[in-house]
Design goal:
By secondary structure, the chain is an alpha+beta fold. Helices cover about 40% and strands about 15% of the residues. It has four domains: about 350 residues, no CATH class; about 270 residues, Alpha/Beta hydrolase fold, catalytic domain (Rossmann fold, 3-Layer(aba) Sandwich), CATH 3.40.50; about 160 residues, no CATH class; about 140 residues, Jelly Rolls (Sandwich), CATH 2.60.120. Strand 15 and strand 16 form a beta hairpin. Helix 1 packs across helix 13 and helix 3 packs across helix 5. The protein binds 2-acetamido-2-deoxy-beta-D-glucopyranose. The site of 2-acetamido-2-deoxy-beta-D-glucopyranose has 4 residues, from loops.
């Protein structure tokens, strides 16, 4: 056995270690937003007004007393009466109806070019302006509480009925939801009234707070709608910048996974891939970020003119999720009409700076072309087949495939015999064009509407055998403004890298690119063996051979594109020795894998006009530990709470087993024994379990990914440290309480607790009734905790040796330092050994010291036992608090905003808290241990093992199960303890 100073040092070290680690994690998590995915968003401006919908009253829904509905009007732009297509905006957790203003204002100002003048983009197309309604939920905390979410769903559903009653029959509404509002929107879904659903920063697949089973219930229903309901749904995600939700949960489950080949439209788009935005967007910023809001508004405006789901899919793809998927048909032109044609020599790229006029450039297709040759064309500040930046200049480029039947020396003669067809693109999208020397994206500004380079890629068609010559014709029509065109053939092979995450750890992560050719416009690198997980962030450092200053700036500086998921694309500026953070949300803890989320895959593309003189030719891949810690920290706070509960359950398992052998150890002793004996074994076991391919709902949620296995022991150590810290915290709370009770005249209740039977039963019935009718059970549990804290503080005071202020080295709950006293070192109690002394020995010694007699000593021992048991129970209840605390916040908020008469449904299940009510009441009236005393204690400890197992395996995904199983077990223990006869005795005691 260790001396107490050393054992205390043990727990102190572990506790401080955990706190330090949590502090570090907090900072690392905060930095992720800035280093991994900085935000570049312009503020949006508007002139808002909100009209309260008085008529939407309790004759529509009883919730009209609690919530309200508003109509947004842009002052000076919108007339006051509704007239167009209705849109309902649903705010999220603690969100406000006013958040509708940015998108609504943008819709008004896009539809009208000046007040009451319809913009030329919309005239004559049968498109109407939008009427934005927003529900006001008084900033309710919907993320923590299923019934609140249910109320919001009910109210929104009634609001849609009310809104549509003001429109012609068969009008359908567009629903937009921010954050948890998207969950409300999805829950409205099997509805003929909703034409489309757009969610922003919504955690679709994983509740951010997992303390309520009823939220999981809503999520289960939503998951079904998302797979089966034909309403088009788009989810816009902010990526790593969003610190409130893990963005992997924002990815919609793919309907195609369950219904193969289904035409159900589900799209997820990360703002880093959203054309024109190309930035991570924070959680709250999502509703006002200008680069996002105008696209959402535009998509909604266009949706108003759509008649079918297919139309809507095309519109949503065009405005929110082009991502290279949707390719508008190219129009055919008569090449002979071009004023001038110009044939280029073979093996030459087309480079036009500030082109002017109306011309067709012909690039001869070499006869010896390999099959995978691609024609690549970039256009800056212009457009290709209507794809271009929002404010593109009048530069138009159209690629064609042309064949000629006669070989003639001059291009004029070609014109007669050329026949051209539009070239079918395989990719057509807008890429960002970061400004050299400036950060990308530019902070607080982001991309401009005129930014961007159009990328056109097409597989070069086979040349028919009867054709002598073939060209790619690029038809350029320009007004001489500041743009450029760059195109050519690209034969780049894919470079497949075998680097895995363990190679990086071993230091072998250098990747040499093939020697750069003059004409190399794009390069493709895949990493099929590299772990691609939301928890892991890589640092990719580009190196160029000889960074010289004499190189001319290429017209298209190298752009790195990282793709890990169809929805997720990240763009980076590629510069010598400027590391970029490669991150993904494709696979992540607790999220089931789907077809599109491979856990080991990444691909990089590099686009560049390449001068060949300063090109990057080497990558160094390392793990960005700081960012990785930050990512892990944001994914696992819940696991710490449930694992700490698990550790406490293990402590109790040990303590109860010891008590079966004779004496119950104090919490401090339990902690030290736990750290010394089972913990090293548990660390190994936790690692081994992490390697098992469990389903993502269990344990770490990592499906046995070996590299992430090391997380389990670290989390276990931190959880144990937190338990130590929580114990100091409890001591700190008990200290003033104890002083306080000592100052009061000794109350007779503690010692004279005979004949309380009636009041016990009455008080329990009264509290149960209160819970049943009014107070949520979580509040009753907090009450139980307070009473039990008081009981423990009191029983510490009752102890026969002088209690002292709590210190780390000696807690007032340590067992009696009897040997020292016997040896005549009575004053030396603080540094005494914490040896567990067999009761017989203890009795003997006590007897010699205290002449009062055996009865008192048994009493004293009982009191110590009871105190140790109570403090253990207090520790468990303390760790169950975080699982019920959120509802307290929700309840208080609801009472404050909706009045004291507002019904607060669904939390009146008395049985969840009843075991604690009885436990707390009985322990407060007893002097001897309740649960560990007697025979029952000898096998009860297995129950704690079950609680521990549930906490460790299930607690991270379904934290509420920890409370349920703990409550169930305490209930069972009480039932076992109080066979009817015994119950009567407890009540009488
Ligand atoms: C609700 O509003 C309508 C229209 O203003 C009114 O006729 C009705 O009486 C109101 N109902 C209640 C319960 O206030």
């Amino acid at each position: 056995m260790l001396p107490s100073s050393m054992t205390s040092a043990f727990t102190a070290t572990l506790g401080l270690f955990s706190l330090t680690l949590i502090y570090i994690c907090y900072h690392a998590a905060n930095d992720v937003r800035l280093t991994v995915s900085p935000q570049g968003c312009r503020m949006s401006w508007m002139s808002p007004s909100y009209l309260l919908q008085h008529e939407f009253n309790s004759s529509w829904t009883p919730l009209a007393h609690r919530y309200s509905l508003w109509l947004y009007r842009e002052v000076g732009w919108d007339p006051n009466q509704v007239m167009g297509v209705p849109v309902l905006f649903i705010p999220g957790n603690a969100g406000s109806s006013h958040q509708v203003r940015s998108i609504a204002s943008s819709a008004a100002r896009q539809y009208f070019s000046s007040p009451f003048v319809i913009s030329s983009d919309f005239t004559g197309r049968g498109i109407q302006p939008l009427d934005f309604f927003a529900v006001e939920f008084n900033e309710d905390l919907s993320a923590f509480h299923g019934p609140t979410l249910d109320s919001q769903i009910e109210y929104s559903s009634a609001a849609i009925r009310y809104i549509l009653s003001h429109y012609p029959p068969n009008t359908r509404i567009i629903v937009m939801g921010h954050s948890m509002g998207g969950i409300v929107g999805t829950a409205l879904l099997p509805s003929d009234d909703i034409s489309a659903l757009i969610t922003m920063s919504t955690p679709h697949t994983l509740p951010p707070a997992r303390f309520d089973a009823r939220i999981d219930e809503i999520y289960r229903r939503n998951a079904e709608y998302l797979v089966n309901d034909p309403t088009p749904v788009v989810s816009i995600c902010g990526g790593a910048t969003d610190m409130m939700i893990p963005s992997e949960s924002c990815i919609l489950p793919d309907a195609g996974d369950v219904n193969p080949g289904s035409a159900i439209y589900r799209r997820t788009i990360f703002t880093s891939a959203l054309e024109g935005a190309w930035t991570g967007v924070g959680h709250r910023e999502m509703v006002w970020c200008h680069q996002v809001r105008w696209r959402v508004a535009r998509a909604a405006l266009e949706l108003g003119g759509a008649n079918s789901n297919v139309d809507m899919a095309v519109i949503l793809d065009t405005w929110l999720n082009r991502n290279g998927r949707l390719i508008p048909p190219a129009t055919s032109i008569d090449i002979s009409e071009a004023a001038t044609n110009e044939a280029l020599p073979e093996d030459m790229n087309l480079v036009l700076k500030k082109p002017a006029g109306f011309r067709t450039y012909l690039l001869p297709i070499p006869r010896t072309l390999e099959t995978n040759t691609t024609f690549v064309l970039f256009v800056s500040r212009g457009s290709i087949s209507s794809i271009g930046s929002q404010h593109s200049t009048r530069l138009q480029a159209s690629p064609y495939f042309c064949v000629g039947r006669a070989t003639s020396p001059t291009i004029q003669q070609y014109s007669e015999s050329l026949s051209c067809v539009p070239l079918e693109p395989s990719t057509l999208k807008l890429l960002p064009s970061p400004i050299p020397g400036k950060p990308f994206p530019v902070p607080d500004e982001g991309s401009d509407e005129s930014d961007g380079v159009v990328l056109f890629e097409a597989t070069v068609p086979r040349i028919p055998a009867d054709v002598e010559d073939a060209w790619i014709g690029v038809h350029v029509n320009a007004a001489g403004e500041d743009g450029w065109v760059f195109g050519g053939f690209d034969k780049t092979q894919t470079l497949q890298s075998d680097i895995g995450v363990f190679d990086i750890l071993a230091g072998g992560a250098k990747l040499s690119l093939q020697s750069v050719e003059q004409s190399s416009m794009r390069r493709h690198i895949t990493f099929p063996k590299l772990l691609s997980n939301a928890l892991l962030i890589y640092k990719l450092t580009p190196r160029s051979a000889e960074p010289t200053v004499s190189c001319a700036q290429p017209i298209l500086p190298p752009l790195l594109v990282h793709k890990s998921h169809p929805a997720e694309t990240h763009y980076y500026r590629l510069e010598h020795d400027k590391p970029v953070a490669i991150h993904t949300h494709a696979s992540a803890p607790f999220i089931p894998l789907s077809r599109f989320t491979p856990s080991h895959s990444s691909e990089l593309w590099i686009y560049s006009s390449g001068t060949g003189c300063q090109d990057v030719n080497e990558f160094i891949l390392t793990i960005d530990w700081w960012a990785t810690i930050g990512r892990i920290a944001t994914r696992y706070p819940t696991i710490l709470i449930s694992w700490s509960s698990g550790v406490v359950a293990l402590l109790m398992f040990h303590a109860w087993r010891e008590s079966g052998k004779g004496s119950m150890p104090s919490v401090q002793q339990s902690l030290v024994t736990f750290i010394c004996r089972p913990m090293p074994k548990l660390l190994v076991a936790s690692f081994v379990v992490a390697l098992l391919p469990l389903s993502p709902g269990y344990y770490l949620g990592t499906r046995g990914e070996s590299f992430l296995g090391f997380l389990a022991p670290v989390l276990l150590v931190v959880a144990t440290g937190l338990v130590c810290v929580s114990w100091w915290f409890i001591l700190l709370l008990m200290w003033p309480l104890r002083l306080f009770t000592r100052l009061l005249p000794a109350k007779s209740r503690q010692y004279n607790d005979q004949g309380m039977s009636r009041s016990t039963v009455v008080s329990i019935i009264f509290i149960s009734l209160l819970v049943f009718l009014f107070v949520p059970w979580q509040i009753a549990f907090i009450g139980c905790w307070l009473i039990h804290l008081h009981t423990c503080a009191n029983s510490a005071h009752r102890k026969p040796y002088p209690g002292s202020a709590p210190s780390l080295r000696s807690t007032p709950t340590e067992s009696l330092p009897l040997r020292e006293r016997f040896d005549g070192h009575e004053q030396d109690t603080q540094d005494a050994e914490t040896n567990e002394i067999a009761p017989s020995e203890e009795l003997e010694i006590q007897d010699m010291r205290r002449p009062q007699g055996l009865a008192t000593i048994t009493d004293t021992l009982d009191i110590i036992q009871a105190h140790h048991e109570n403090t253990h129970l207090l520790l468990l209840m303390t760790w169950l608090l975080p699982l019920s605390m959120p509802v307290l916040a929700v309840w208080v908020r609801t009472l404050m905003t909706a009045g004291y008469t507002a019904p607060f449904n669904g939390d009146h299940n008395v049985f969840k808290v009843a075991p604690f009510l009885v436990l707390v009441d009985c322990t407060s009236r007893r002097k001897s241990a309740l649960l560990s005393h007697g025979k029952a204690g000898s096998y009860l400890h297995w129950g704690y093992l079950i609680v521990a197992c549930v906490s460790f395996l299930l607690g991270s995904r379904e934290a509420y199960r920890v409370f349920d199983v703990a409550s169930l077990f305490i209930g069972c223990a009480l039932v076992v303890k109080f066979s009817p006869v015994r119950f009567a005795r407890c009540v009488a005691e």
